[in-house]
Amino acid sequence: MKRTALYSRHAALSARFVEFGGWQMPVQYTSIIDEHRAVRERAGLFDVSHMGEIELRGPHAVARAQELTVNDVNRLRDGQAQYSLLCQPDGGAIDDIIVHRITSERILLCVNAGNIEKDFAWIREHGDGAEVLNRSAEFGQLALQGPRATEILLRLTSLPLPQIPPFAFAEGPVAGHRALVAHTGYTGEDGWELYCAVDDAPALWDALLETGQTSGLQPAGLGARDTLRLERALPLYGHELTAETTPLEAGLGWVVRFTKPSFIGRDALLRQREVGLSRQLVGFVMIGSGIARQGYVICRDGVRVGAVTSGTKSPTLGKAIGLGYVASTCKEIGTRLSIDIRDRMISAEVVRLPFYKR
Fold first, then answer.
1. Are the CB atoms for 307 and 297 separated by under 8 Å?
2. pTM to 2 decimals?
3. Do 220 and 45 meet the contact criterion of CB atoms below 8 Å apart?
């Protein structure tokens, strides 16, 4: 398994490690609940250096990104970012990504760790006219998230953070190290994602933890990252998104810009929108005792109608929650379902998403 440049820092903090996307990553340092609450109430620092960075360069960089992704890259100005997806011609999701427009000739894509090689091959195959670079090995990436994240980061940078809106970014020094600082995140809280040279990541990690100590900053692992994103109903590739699911089924139709005359997957997604969806992603809360896990069968009136994609006990809500695909006839808020948990049918109810709003 691969290790990030911060592996020794995690080991020194007695982190518990797991395999994720081919990487040995910290799942927790103290406890998932403790780290989850730190992010919700104060701030948490995540090592997300396993994520991938792929760059499109040249005078056709924007045009190629426009064709490759479902969102409208032409709407971006320098220093702006957007959530988007790469799709197959049949509309299936290759990956969900963040598109950063650095200049009109430089587009940086942040992709999921387990999809780096697949995404790079796809983008290079369909990126005619642009230079395509896999820069993943060059970058370290940290995520500083929580209501105190901005006040902590301001102590280490002269960048005008309060003037940087969500899904915008700036480049400049942080603790003496050059970084691209993006007002984005994956927790449902306010926060920042910092892209830096891989060799600078340990020093930047140390500076953030030391500076944030008085504000209650804690290191947080993948366990808390998962419970936080699930409370906000943010999709995880390999769970809510796969090559067999489309953005429309996943409730991400707001990302798909059909006003664009052309992008890969447009025709298939347009047909799906016109015909109607046979299944959709819903959120549910367990009524009975039990936690739904990926792959568990979802039933209604004794008939299978879908399957769970993610589930956990929500530290914030104190309830067991989950996401899953069900037949579109079962999507309405208040619909009663049953989840097959170890051969026991446990009651659940479809609820409005997201589960949590700050």
1. yes
2. 0.97
3. yes
